Structures are given as C-alpha cells and as structure tokens.
Amino acid sequence: MQEMRKFSRKWHKLFCIFLLFMAGEKLTAQHIDSLAGGTNTSLRGLSVVNDQIVWASGSNGTVARSIDGGKTWKWVKVAGLEKNDFRDIEAFDELNAVIMSVGEPAYILKTHDGGNTWRLVFEDKRPGMFLDAMEFWNEKSGIVIGDPIDGKIFVARTFDGGESWRGLPEQNYPTAEKGEAMFAASGTNIRKLDADEACFVTGGTKSRLFIRSKKIDIPIVQGKESTGANSVAVLNFKKINGRPEIIVVGGDFAADTVSRENCAITRDGGKTWIIPKTPPHGYRSCVEWINSNALIACGTSGVDISKDAGMNWSLISKESYHVCRKAKDGKSVFLAGNRGRIARLVW
C-alpha cells in the first residue's frame, strides 16, 4: 500500500511538471501582438531598419514611423499628396526614407528629416503608369518596377540612395504577355538575389519568375486578373552552396480562403519547383524569411508560419494583414494592413 502511494505521488508530480511545461509552451508559442490601428489608411509599405526603427506607408498620403520598437508611432500626411497611395517604402535610418506612390501619375519621394518634409525625386505622368514595388541592395543602389506599358515592364534604377532615378533603355525593358502584370500588394514582388542581381514575379493571366533574361513559369494559380504570384522571398545560400532558395506566394485575392496553388519553392533557380505538403491557409500577399528555416506569410485571410523552410504552414492568426517584414539589422518581424493596423510577431 505504501509503495502504491509513493508511485501515485511520483506520477502526480510528473503530471504537474507536464502541465507546467505545456502551459509554458502555450505562453511562448508564436502569435501576433497588435501595436496600432484605427487610422484611415491601408498600409502596404513596410520597412524595418532594426529592432527599434520601423516605417510604414499607405493610402490617403499616410506614413508612420516608430523609433522605439513599435511602442509609439508618429503619423504624418505627405503635404500636397494626401490622396495618394504609397504602397512601398524603403527606410535607411530614423531620418531617411523613400516612398513610392503607385500612379497615375507615379511618384517617388524622399525625406531626410523623419517624414516632416518630402522631396519629389521621380515623376512619370504617362497614361497607364503604375509602380508596384521597390528593392534596395544597400543604402545607395535600388530598383523600382512598374506594370507593363505597351507590353514593356517598367524598370528604373537609383545609385544615390533614391535621390534620383533613371529608367532602363527602352530596348532593355522586360516584355510581358497580355494580361500579365505585378500586384502592388506588399512591395515584395521584387527582391535582390545577390550583390547586384534581382528577381521579380508576375501575376494575372500569366505568373512567372523573371531572373535576368529568363522567364520561368511558376506552378501557382493564374489565368484571371485576381490570380497569380504576389510576393517572392529569397534566402541566399551563395556562401554555402552557390544557390539561393526562392519561395513565391499568392493565390486568388477574390477567393482569399482558398489554399490551392498559392505557394511554390525552388532551390535551383526555377528549373524545378516544390509544392508545400501543407500550404498557407489562403491567399497570401507577402512572404518573408525569418531565419534559414522559418518563414512568415500574410494576407487578407490570415497569417501563417512555417518552421521547415516552407514545406508545412500553420495558421497563427485569422487577422488580415497585407505585408510582413523582418528587421534588416535585427530579429524583429512586423506586419501592417488595413485601418492603420500594425503588429509584431512574438516568436
């Protein structure tokens, strides 16, 4: 009898330890921590300089900035452009940033004083002009991409930190098929591949990955204006094995809970594609590498996390977000979306 009591006490102690362990696991599980909201703007531009400095941009001429890791935010309206939609932003520090207004006309502006004033550095008033996303290799060299005009995809470069921009020679513009374009959904349909190369993805009637002169079909839903690739993220393995790992997300934003054909991965520059065993849970407008194994993807129907390089995805929130970005110098991951909503991933 005494032995049975000892046995019972032992298992009771082990059970209590198990419960404490499970409670700890639940408390430390990844989730989304809301930081801001209620502002009349749809945020699609997001740039996380480090764990403290975060910039966001969106509709109604709005730009937001935090210099304390998202605890407090400074909201500004760009004077004279209060109705414009700034769908991408690149920030370099707490004072200097570049914003992109889609069009028409298409504008790029830069601030040197934390968003108090902005200077126009690029303007294009052509009919049909519509910018989609920017990408910077460093504080000097950057690229912007825009929807096709007469079948030619617009590309411009800067080599002075966004102070000035110049379009490629007309004969060097990539060509698109009829109905093929880019989605200005999160500023992430173009990404750097290495020190001087970039890649971008298209959607619509045709969804392809463009790498230099290569145009590679992506096994993702396509064929309608609402379908195709929205975002591409690159994990650069160049120092390890000479190749980047590229992941593409998208889907059909008109049917944003459908998970079919919304994600594809390539480890050989698009020669072959891998389809996730468990895909993201719906249309996703943005994807971002958190580390060499983990990814986050978000869209209007929720937020997913993958811990195995994109092969299996877990839904961690049904809240709508347009964009998610990791700190360029740090570990923090932030998200932004409609109604001025900004959040942080607790990882």
Quick recap:
9% of the residues lie in helices and 42% in strands. With 347 residues, it is mainly beta.
Describe, in plain words, how this protein is organized in 3D.
It is built from two helices and 29 strands. The N terminus is likely disordered. The chain has 347 residues and is mainly beta. It folds into two domains: 147 residues, 6 Propeller (Neuraminidase); 135 residues, 7 Propeller (Methylamine Dehydrogenase, Chain H). A hairpin with a 7-residue loop joins strand 4 and strand 5. 9% of the residues lie in helices and 42% in strands. It is globular.
Q: What is the name of the CATH class of the largest domain? A: Mainly Beta
Shape: globular
* Secondary structure: number of strands: 29
How much helix is in the residues? under 10%
**Could you say which structural class the secondary elements and strand pairing correspond to?**
mainly beta
Radius of gyration: 22 Å
| Total helical segments | 2
Give the biggest beta sheet: 4 strands, antiparallel
CATH topology of the largest domain: Neuraminidase
End-to-end Cα distance, whole Å, is 48 Å
Low-confidence stretches: 1-8, 12-28
Strand order of the largest sheet: 1-29-28-27
Mean model confidence by pLDDT: 92
CATH architecture of the largest domain: 6 Propeller
Strand content: 35-45%
Number of domains: 2
